[in-house]
């Protein structure tokens, strides 16, 4: 038994080292100005100082965070309302809602962006705005992940019993759903929102095709930096990873705090 435990521990350590190796090498590369031999040379933090003093990069961070918060908020509200209607009033429609929410799995970013441009670029309304199209596209591509997270959370609790108990105490169905059911699946919403954040953070195709260079996010900034300075590009990648880890840590903290309550 001990041999199996040691073998499993060794295997997990090997997998972790294999997965972290590219990140470690990128960090080392970003801290040295020259790496043409086995050992890197000329340690320097100049790349980080230049990036953190660049106002355009700071604006890219703000734009990327806005591109995460707005579509995730919209999608969560839509999915929760759809789940409320199908769970409380029309349970037979749940399978159709699931099919609709899973469709974006099969849509590639290039196809989605071209389709949106073809349909709305000449529209004389707010739908023709490129930012609106971008946030709408993000809301579509993250829909399967948000739906599956909320669905898993609702499957873990007895929604029907909790709703009936709240009604027996005089609560309306909508009140029971949003004040009793939703808080009980809050951790599932947080996890699915975190997954959606990772997808939006890594997007380049949609934002490049729909907005061009008018809405420069962190991935476009990284791509443009790679053309001029590989060391600076490595530093940008490390900062993106740190921001992602920070968002993950805050999200997990809120999830654990909610669980404690």
From TrEMBL:
<comment type="similarity">
    <text>Belongs to the binding-protein-dependent transport system permease family.</text>
</comment>
<feature type="transmembrane region" description="Helical">
    <location>
        <begin position="127"/>
        <end position="147"/>
    </location>
</feature>
<protein>
    <submittedName>
        <fullName>ABC transporter permease subunit</fullName>
    </submittedName>
</protein>
<dbReference type="InterPro" id="IPR035906">
    <property type="entry name" value="MetI-like_sf"/>
</dbReference>
<keyword id="KW-0813">Transport</keyword>
<feature type="domain" description="ABC transmembrane type-1">
    <location>
        <begin position="61"/>
        <end position="251"/>
    </location>
</feature>
<dbReference type="Pfam" id="PF00528">
    <property type="entry name" value="BPD_transp_1"/>
</dbReference>
<feature type="transmembrane region" description="Helical">
    <location>
        <begin position="233"/>
        <end position="254"/>
    </location>
</feature>
<feature type="transmembrane region" description="Helical">
    <location>
        <begin position="64"/>
        <end position="90"/>
    </location>
</feature>
<keyword id="KW-1003">Cell membrane</keyword>
<dbReference type="InterPro" id="IPR000515">
    <property type="entry name" value="MetI-like"/>
</dbReference>
<keyword id="KW-1133">Transmembrane helix</keyword>
<keyword id="KW-0997">Cell inner membrane</keyword>
<keyword id="KW-0472">Membrane</keyword>
<feature type="transmembrane region" description="Helical">
    <location>
        <begin position="7"/>
        <end position="32"/>
    </location>
</feature>
<feature type="transmembrane region" description="Helical">
    <location>
        <begin position="102"/>
        <end position="121"/>
    </location>
</feature>
<feature type="transmembrane region" description="Helical">
    <location>
        <begin position="176"/>
        <end position="201"/>
    </location>
</feature>
<keyword id="KW-0812">Transmembrane</keyword>
């Amino acid at each position: 038994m001990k041999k199996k435990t040691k073998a499993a521990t060794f295997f997990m350590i090997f997998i972790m080292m294999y997965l972290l190796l590219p990140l470690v090498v990128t960090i080392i590369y970003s801290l040295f100005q020259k790496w043409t031999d086995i050992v890197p040379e000329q340690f320097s933090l100049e790349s980080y100082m230049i990036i953190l003093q660049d106002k355009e990069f700071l604006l890219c961070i703000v734009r990327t965070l806005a591109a995460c918060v707005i579509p995730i908020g919209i999608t969560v509200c839509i999915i929760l309302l759809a789940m409320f209607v199908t769970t409380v009033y029309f349970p037979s429609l749940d399978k159709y809602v699931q099919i609709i929410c899973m469709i974006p799995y099969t849509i590639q970013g290039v196809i989605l962006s071209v389709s949106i441009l073809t349909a709305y670029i000449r529209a004389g309304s707010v739908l023709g705005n490129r930012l609106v199209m971008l946030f709408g596209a993000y809301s579509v591509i993250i829909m399967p992940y948000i739906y599956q997270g909320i669905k898993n959370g609702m499957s873990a609790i007895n929604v029907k019993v909790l709703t009936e108990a709240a009604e027996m105490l005089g609560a309306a169905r909508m009140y029971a759903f949003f004040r009793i059911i939703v808080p009980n699946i809050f951790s599932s919403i947080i996890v699915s929102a975190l997954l959606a954040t990772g997808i939006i953070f890594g997007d380049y195709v949609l934002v490049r095709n729909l907005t061009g260079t008018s809405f420069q996010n962190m991935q476009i900034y990284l791509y443009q930096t790679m053309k001029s300075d590989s060391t600076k590009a490595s530093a940008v990648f490390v900062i993106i990873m740190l921001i992602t880890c920070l968002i993950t840590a805050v999200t997990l903290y809120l999830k654990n705090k909610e669980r404690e309550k």
